Amino acid sequence: MAGYDYDLFVIGAGSGGVRASRIAASHGARVGICEDDLVGGTCVIRGCVPKKLLVYGSHVSEDVEDAAAWGWTIPEPSFAWATLRDNVQKEVMRLNGIYKTLLKNANVDLVIGRGRLMDAHTISVGERVVTTDKILLAPGARPWRPSIPGAELAIVSDDAFHLPELPKRIVIVGGGYIAVEFAGIFNGLGSEVSVVLRRDRVLRGFEEECRDHVQAGMTTKGVRFRTDTELAAIERDGAGLVAITTTGERIATDVVMYGTGRIPNVAGLGLEKAGVLLDKAGAVTVDEWSRTTAGTIYAVGDVTNRMNLTPVAIMEGHCFADTVFGGKPRKPDHRDVPSAVFSQPQMATVGVTEAEARRIFPKVDIYAATFRPMKYTLSGRDQKTFMKLVVDAASDRVVGAHMVGDDAAELIQGIGIAVKAGATKAMFDATVGIHPTAGEEFVTMRTKRPDPAPAAKAAE
């Protein structure tokens, strides 16, 4: 609007904020965006991109071990953490530059500093005050830190990318994807890894059998799990640390890392001044159009805690811009969103789990397969691939697909299209597989598992 400096001002230049600002500008809006860190957000700067680069680096040790089975003689290898760390950061800085260029080319003004709401149309960024017709909150999330004695001695996932040296021993707290992925990374790079989690298994909320396969695979690779416990305290012990669990165990280590998730980054945003309410989890409350309780203010991405995935934040930001500035109203669709955990072994999923399906549908058919990938038949590596299809028996529609094993994310991305399109099991069966591949298993599984209902009834 003419009376304001901008038609839209975005707080947070992560994936969702950048996409929303660029699309809004393409619709003719005058757009500004602020950021108090590098441009690109959690995923690009301190999340999925640098983390997956570390995953790639950590896989090399196994490839070298397996090389002899393929006829290769490789001298004793050595690893330089500083080289990998610095090369990853160079890539992060390159991407930061690309994001800045994208904003510039879209005629979006970038203001460096953390934005703070003064009211529903006014934002302060450092010494500057801007006015705007609409505001989009996209500040993302930040690592959760505990309040136990010695918590200040621990690092969080953000810090792991900048360690001065590779720890010989590391204790990782948590059972979610952040903890699991970093456990695989440090284990692959040669660290002695212990994972402390308060439940019996990792990756709560994912398909139960996938959880089992991931944890078993990590255990085989040498990761040690302390389950059903938490850290009670962290103490210094000379040049190292001691992590003390609630069961009384004392674990000597060089580094303690909390990978217990991230929380909405709302501190200091001045939300109360603009009438923006939070939910019980501390996330910004939004409706199906990403509108907050303040009519002119919207929010997307991890700060809303709907589905904390980068592509989802991008979708939400794009939908917001099209709806508010493009005259093309559309809501973000959070159904059947594929996701992956870059654990070792890797896991990926789309649709509902078996447990969820049994709550939704009267009858469910389950197809599953476990096998050793061809890649490991010569080397003898003890690593299995697991695949599972969940089918609504009444419609024959595949409502869930899950995988643990090499390239799970790449395969499930394609399967995700079929699930989103409503493909039936008959369509999977009619698809000719590519042989020899792991992926062909998804279209050759023919034997249904016995329905557990009769067995459960007989046991009553």
Structural write-up:
With 460 residues, this protein is of the alpha/beta class. The chain folds into three domains: 6-142 and 263-325, FAD/NAD(P)-binding domain; 151-260, FAD/NAD(P)-binding domain; 345-448, Enolase-like, domain 1. The protein contains 13 helices and 22 strands. It has helices spanning 15-26, 41-46, 48-66, 81-105, 157-160, 177-189, 208-220, 271-274, 310-325, 354-360, 408-420, 425-430, 452-458; strands at residues 6-11, 31-35, 109-112, 115-119, 122-125, 128-137, 141-143, 155-156, 169-173, 192-196, 224-226, 231-237, 240-245, 250-253, 255-258, 262-264, 297-299, 339-341, 347-351, 364-371, 385-392, 397-404. The strands form five sheets. Strands 1, 2, 3, 4, 5, 6 and 17 form a seven-stranded mixed sheet that branches. Strand 12 (231-237) and strand 13 (240-245) form a beta hairpin. Helix 3 (48-66) packs antiparallel against helix 4 (81-105) and helix 3 (48-66) crosses helix 6. The longest helix is centred in the first third of the chain and has 25 residues, at 81-105. The mean pLDDT is 96.
